[in-house]
Amino acid sequence: MKLSTLAASATLGLSAIATAAPSHSKTITYTTVKGYFLQDEPSTDPSTFDYTSHNFGLIDRRYDSDKHDPNTRDLTQWERFHRELEYLNKHSPQHVSYKLVFMGRHGEGWHNAAESYFGTPGWNCYYSLLPGNTTHTWFDADLTPEGVSQASIAHTYWQSQYAEQNIHFPDAYYVSPMTRALKTANITFSGLPLPLDAPFIPEVKEGFREGMSMHTCDHRRSKSYIESLFPWWTFEEGFTEEDELWTGVTAETEEAQDERSRDALDDIFSRSRRGPFWKSKPADVCGGPGHDHDHGHGEDEKDLVISITAHSGEIASILRVIGHQPFGLSTGAVIPVLVRAEEVKEPDGPTASATWTHSAYCTAPPATSTASGCVCAASAPPVTSGFPVGGTTVPTPTPF
């Protein structure tokens, strides 16, 4: 679902959207290329895995590119992996592209702390619909001190991987517009010894925000607020001043979230330089036509390594889209995935967009918290229409 359609339907508060339109004759299919990272292995337990334990999970192994390059003996594992990434792109068909995608979950936010305090059922049924309490705000939640620490761990680990492994830093950065993700990305990548032709100037992208529910933590602040925090960052085309997606009434289904995740990936993967489908960068973009900097990619491909700072639910959605096994991330954790993208032709025909639904909630703190659903006070039935208890009240943000 294109975000323009999504925004319109969300603003109207529709519980279901069904449209029929001609499909594109070309689309991109995504595949996880397994065998490179421990996170690809079914035997790896995401609940205990520590991405800082060894090279972000990069498996020590030989690559096909090693056979064709006599100068790899003294290279680190990450240096040889990057040559493998270049090799895959150089020897792939014109309609196939490979990218290494680093997905980082934001550090702990005040909404995470509130859910732990109130319990998940009570949080989902009532407290998440409030903008906050007398001590903390979880509308577009900021980072807790623990969240800041988790982002700092990621920063330090990137720094050590560069010093010890000469890891290739991301060529492009994308970040969710939610405050907790913005600040996590900034703490993680600011101050690193990045190359001049790939500085940390992320693009703020609606497609990578958390799955949208009635929770106020899913309601973003204005574009002006984001610009006040990071005035040198960029925004995707069409990014609106106010949040036109969150309604406080309807919730995005898993299918709808996967559609917008796919649209965001399509936009990123279509910005490289391979052939008519892989669109060229404009001449005024660093690394585009007319620029000498190559950042080690050869002449056929740009932005081989990308960073996405997002959320647990959104990263889970991206993993579904690229065919990766489920791999839950704790707050502040990072997962790298080698992604293969292929242009395929599809017959023209009508397409149906995914639905949004109303969710049940309580109008007062729930009497009990159960995993099966909302149990409201005085045996009152859960409400499924109208604005939730949080309404549209938005507290004034205060600096962290």
Automatic annotation (TrEMBL):
The keyword Hydrolase does not apply. This is Histidine phosphatase superfamily. Gene3D superfamilies: Phosphoglycerate mutase-like. It comes from the Eukaryota. The keyword Nucleotidyltransferase does not apply. Keywords: Signal. InterPro entries: His_Pase_superF_clade-1, His_PPase_superfam, PGM_Phosphatase. The lineage of its organism: Eukaryota, Fungi, Dikarya, Ascomycota, Pezizomycotina. Residues 1-20 form the signal peptide.
